[in-house]
Amino acid sequence: MFERRILISLLEWANSPNRKPLVLRGARQVGKTTIIEEFAKEFDTFLSLNLERTKDKALFETNDTPEDVLTAIYLSKNKEKKTGRTLLFIDEVQSSKKAVAMLRYFYEDIPELFVIAAGSLLETLIDVQISFPVGRVEYLALRPCSFSEFLGAISENQIKEKLLSAELPEAIHSQVTKLFNEFVLVGGMPEVVASYAEKRDIVALRKIYDTLLNGYRDDVEKYASNKTERNVLRHILKNGWRYAGQRIKFECFGESNYKSREIGEAFRTLEKAMVLELCYPTVVAEVPLSPDLKKSPKLLWLDTGIVNYVAKNQLELFGLQDISKLWKGKIAEHIVGQELLSHNDSVLSQRNFWVRDARNSQAELDFVIQTESQLVPIEVKSGHNSKIKSMHLFMEQSKHDFAIRFWNNPMQKDILKLSSGKQYTLLSLPFYYAEALNKILKKNDIQ
What we know:
The protein has 18 helices and 13 strands. With 447 residues, it is α/β, with parallel strands linked by helices. It has two domains: 6-141, P-loop containing nucleotide triphosphate hydrolases (Rossmann fold), CATH 3.40.50.300; 207-443, no CATH class. The strands form two sheets. The protein has an eight-stranded mixed β-sheet, sandwiched between helices. The longest helix has 18 residues, at 206-223.
């Protein structure tokens, strides 16, 4: 076990006076159970259930009140009630509708009990087969490891702390870039990171990647509601990885004969399972950010390391100095997108990009993020400032004067002048600072 940042959010939840039962969401194998077992060390008593086990599920099916359920759990686990704090963890909670409904009554009748629920299929069933107690639970999202968590796993803790405070000296830029490129190669799935931290052997990771991929494919049987959806899901999980970071169309996706509706439904199922995200564009340059769901989305998978493994990018990436030169820059864009989301544990968080709303226009920016007062455009591209034409077009429309570029070089700040006479600040950041972007924006008084 290495340190995960979400432990801070779990502690904040536990210490909140208005705490509700917590539903922990995340794709399979992002470490939900491991995190809760680590978090449980903060409590005097830890009760753990897995409702895929018949014996554990029966505790909810044969008892009607939260008090009776809790007593039955203590007896089943052969534990005595103690003074102090008790954490109840209900894994695979979606296996019992009564357990889901009971979350509300734990909140209302036993508010002193700390309750966390999770499930590998939970996300595909929300608002479909199971009705969650609205207003009686809260949510956190667990995502793959970030670069800083990777650094902690490989014992580069001093670099980790300087990264998070955005105070890395330029003298170690090449060293940190090399470490970041290792992270891009390995990815952020916890089991993969832990194995690499122990053995530093890329080849030894193949079995873990295969196990992860097979697990997602095996889950298709559970996600799918009919044979057609099962086949479409299998098609996406087999062929969709090579479209990472690219804009896609649903009709005949991946050189298939499937219709737009069939592909769209399957993508939305996998999106609920947090295996991927359909990242939609906006055509506006001012707040509020409003995605245009009629335009084609960009496909972003949960983990760049898995993308590299499936796409067979690992050999080309190994020892590469500039990741923007790989796969037409899509891998650099994909990992920046992954890092932008890595420290956001809201289940509602989504990424967006920008396109120019003009006929036959090809202008596109890789990402835009909304602060309290403005949209901040983000380009992922190494090269001369004259080659960021889409950024210039966005800044012509924007009332603000600050933009971000991620590239392979050290941090650099330029004042650029547009043909209209408007000037704006372009802050170019090394790829490894994507995770620390919010800190950097605050340092530059961007709120």
